[in-house]
Amino acid sequence: MGQYVLESVWLVPIYALIGGLLAIPWSPGIISKTGPRPAGYVNLIMTFIAFIHSTVALSISWNQPAYEVFIPWLETAGLRLSIDLEISAISIAAMTVISGLNLLAQIYAIGYMEMDWGWGRFYSLLGLFEAGLCALALTNNLFFSYVILEVLTLGTYLLVGLWFSQPLVVTGARDAFLTKRIGDLFLLMGVLAIYPLTGTWNYNDLAEWAATANVNPTLISLVCLALIAGPMGKCAQFPLHLWLDEAMEGPVPSTILRNSVVVASGAWVLIKLQPVFSLSPLVSSAMVGVGVVSAVGGSLIAIAQIDIKRCLSYSVSTYMGLVFIAVGTQQDEAALLLVLTHACAAALLVMSTGTIVWNSITQDITQLGGLWSRRPISGMAYIVGVLGLIAFPPLGSFWALLKLASGLWETQPWLIGVIVAVNALTAISLTREFGLVWGGKPLPMSARSPEVSWQMTLPMMILFGLVLHLPLILQNLSLLPNWATVNKDVALLLIWSSIFGCSIGGVIYLGNISKPIRFPWKGLQNLFAYDFYTPKLYRGSIVLGVDLLSKLTDMVDRFVVDGIVNLVGLISLGGGENLKYSNSGQTQFYMFTVLLGVALLGMIVTWQYWGNEFLQLTAIGNQ
Amino acid sequence: MQLQYFLLLAAALFCIGIYGIVTSRNAVRVLMSIELLLNSVNLNLMAFSNYLDSTLIKGQVFAVFVITVAAAEAAVGLAIVLAIYRNRDTVDMEQFNLLKW
Question: What is d(CA A149, CA A43) in angstroms, rounded to the nearest whole number?
Fold first, then answer.
């Protein structure tokens, strides 16, 4: 029985997909009499089955060796595409996290989407996401990872664009699709370029190949740069980070999923490809560079936001930047641990702030305040989420960051400085958000703010417990770094940076300093508040270039290519219009042309005799 | 006397007829120019029959037919001119440009 559960674990994505498909009939155009709610319940049941299946499989697979399943997909001349599935403890654990978080997000959505008619579309897309993410966790093949990433990009477009009657949603969905698509297309270049080198897309074979590979360093650098571009877009890394900010226009329950799991899909591919990246020192440093810029930039931007959801979206970019640093310095395990702890904590934070938005309407944190006495559950969930996200022992992310930083102690100590700084900055930004929303005096928008219904509180509380228990779970699974081996100085540094950040945030935003806080230098404050003016940057560079080029192409098409063809017609038209005047109506003119024609024809026909005849005629004349 | 001179004379007459046809404004003068053309043709026929076919003189037979037909054609032509004149009250060729483009 146990073995059977383990062997059929590939059904998990299929459950989710079926759940997504089953939700479609309750779209308002098909079944409108029952209302849309059955879509959510059906999907929830399927997700629950998926979660139970993967949990049971996880407990069975824990101490078993990983094994691969090959499902042939397409065989053509010279190319065999088989869907490689890796059934290992890690992939099943990832599926458990995905389906578990999706289950919670779906329960949450039952409360959050109560006043919404669009459950059919919403839940079918959530099902699609769950299926895609679980399939991504299972697949052990770069090609199929790419396929799934593209499907998820389309899913993001549709899910962000759920309420498409809002103009900002439409532009946000557009940017989310195009930005991720650009990254995915670069990834496709890398995927295609790596095949001639390795002859395989299987991650295990790639790792084997990378262990003994001897390739041109420039070539492998270029290939690897293309390969990191995909995850860069997926993980909302600099400079492809704007989409995550604009994707906050979508509904909150999908944001839970996006902030915790979807962005991690890029990190998953990155971690899987780490053996290949280690071939090129340039790419490793590029990854570290991108990670550092995103982490520092994201944490600084997050401090300057006033939108409750955007505060959190930039800290997602920050933590994915830390994952980039981890992969760039060849620390897969720290990266995986960070993805896990971040997923739980980020989901909890989004759930908590979502409950505030649900009952306080505004998302502007400068208009919220004084909610602690009336919204203690959401507040506590937020606090635990914060502590789970920053390095606060004994909660999860402390161990992940500690593992990451200890690994850097010997090799790149300056990166520890970055991590400590990012940790402190994130602590400041999250404490600021807490101080503005729960601390201070109630403002008009938050004067009457009841706690939300149980459908939203229940998943939040379950996740609350999970984040609190995560260290115990990790310890039982012996995933925590060994206390004896980790660097205690680093641990102290991290703890102090968290305390430092939280106290600064607390003193400024819970103390009696007049708000809104004005930075001494207003330009800098606006620079962070407007996300380094990234939209302007895009519009001034890539968008402008493509726009001008497409306008130019359009003009060339319209005037030159079309023009040449139209000119032919125009000339024919003009020719007919002008040559008709040769029909003058004068009979004598017609006679003249007939005679002219006959004379010319005669001249041409007799041309060859002309010389002789004239000679003879002159000879006759002379006689 | 040689054949060429007859032919050259006939050609000259033909050219004069052509000039008359193309330039005359009076419709009757156009018909007269056509008669000149036909007469130049007759000259040719007579000259050829005299110099090249003096036994069977087929050219002369041709010339007789041409004269006959020319007479008939002139009759029909004058009838047409008369018909146009009755309608349009003029025989000026430059007034007959109704059927243009």
Answer: 22
